[in-house]
Every structure is written in C-alpha cells, then in structure tokens.
Amino acid sequence: MSTNEPSASSKETQANFAALMKSLTQTIESGNISTIPTSWIKPAPRSMDLMLKYCPKLTNLNWGAWSRNMIRNFKAIGILYLFKGLEEEDFQNAIDPKITHQEKARDEADGRRLICAGLDDEGLKLIANTPTVKKCWTTLRERYVLSPRLQQIWIVDDILQEMKWKEGDRMFSKWLNIQAKVAVFPEFEFLLDGTTTACMKTRLIFLLWSKYLPHHIAAILERHLQQTQGQWLNIMLEIDNELESRPKNQPKTATHSASNQTPSDSKQQRPRIKCQFCKKAGHYEKECRIKKALAQ
C-alpha cells in the first residue's frame, strides 16, 4: 500500500468535516441563524473586577466624563435597559431583554456595585436609600450637574487648592496642572499652547500662585518674574533645579507670609474665621453660599 494513501481514520475525518460544512452552508442560505445581542452577553467575572477597580471617582467637576464612562460599563455588562426612559441617548435606545426577576435583581446589584465604586462617602450617602439604580442615576445627576455659576466657584476653588505646596511637589508638574485647570475657562485656553513672560494674564496667575507657596519658593518665583524672560515651562525647570541645589539643612519657612512668631503668638494673632453671608463663625462665606445654592 502506498504511503501517500490516506488512512481510514483520515477519510472519516474528512467526511465529517465535509458534512459539517454542508450543514453550515444550508443554514446560512436558509437565513435561520439566531443571534444574541452583544448587550445581553454577560462579561467574565474578571472584566467586572477590572471595571470596579479602575472606576473613576465622581467629583463636583467631572459629571460629564464620569457618566460617559459609567454608561460604557453599563453597556458592557448589558444593563442599559435598567435605565430605560432617562434622557441619555444610550438609555433611550436600550432594548428590554426577556429575563427572569432573579436575573433582573442580579443586574440591579451589579449596576449598584459599579455606581458605588465611583462614589466617595458623600455620594454613597446620597444614594443610600434609593430603591433602584435608575433612581440612583437621577439623584446623582440632580446633585452633580451644576449651574455654570456654581461650577465656576468649584473650578476656582480647585485651582487654589492646586496652588498650595505639598512636600515632594515640583514647580514644573504643578504648573502643568494649574494650566490645565485654568484653561477650562475659554478665555484662558491659550495657556495649553505654552506662554512666555510677555503674557500679562500669565504673570497675574503667577503672582497669585506665589501667595500660596512657601516663602523661599515664592522668593525665587518673584525673582524670575522680575528678571527672567522666556517660556514659563523652561523657567519652572530652572526653579526646580535651584530648589534641588539648595543645602538640605537650610531652614525653610512654611508659607510665603510666615514669620518668626512662636506658636502661641501666632495663635493669638490669627483672626477667627467668620462667614460674612450668614454672620456665623467657623466657615468661609464661599462654603456657605455653595451649600445654599445646592439646597435650592
């Protein structure tokens, strides 16, 4: 027998394969192929774990980005139908699957897990008593979709917080962050293209920033404001190099306005915080106005 002649088992395999292909061809031609919508296919447990692990936190400034990411996750695990009827386009186009009450309850639980993973303590308290994930969504949207005026207040406060110096900070990276936050306002979008010392608006930002810096860093920044010309990013690198070259044991003052007062003297002279809006002590006027605006 020739060595090239196929064996009996090979002939059987080829026959089975031919029969399979014929069956598939007939099925395709008949159009009797049933498909399952991808939105109904449940992800592997590991996919859900990754969504929960890397879910961004909702803040006063990021509802748009947060909600888009959350809707993508809802779509991936096939639970858009739970939000059907809400104003978002993806929810309006959701398809109702034919599922049992137990399966719907499981989807509700998965949706709540995802939402809770993207909330801080304040957000978790806000939705603690909501009966469904649909109600969770509308409650969060009502709270975090801010009016333009209130959003501007939060943005400015966020910028001022970024200007404060923390141990391990670098001027170059902090200036990049400040640029990005200030550029949210249309009239400051030019900051993202890079600016020079010739830009008056940028100089005003640096003058404000110097008030939030430690004294020795503010002094270096003010010197560059007066003497240096060029790109601000390059100047920030120069300041970082100057700070790194300073002797490690050189004393530093905590803030730009700090003095050599003893702790007791400083405490006696520190003015007590008082709100000029409600005339009560213990908080600033801005905080009071924000709370009142949210309550309306």
From TrEMBL:
Residues 246-272 are annotated as: Disordered. GO terms for molecular function: nucleic acid binding; zinc ion binding. Residues 248-266 have a biased composition (Polar residues). SUPFAM superfamilies: Retrovirus zinc finger-like domains. This is CCHC-type domain-containing protein. It comes from Ceratocystis fimbriata CBS 114723.
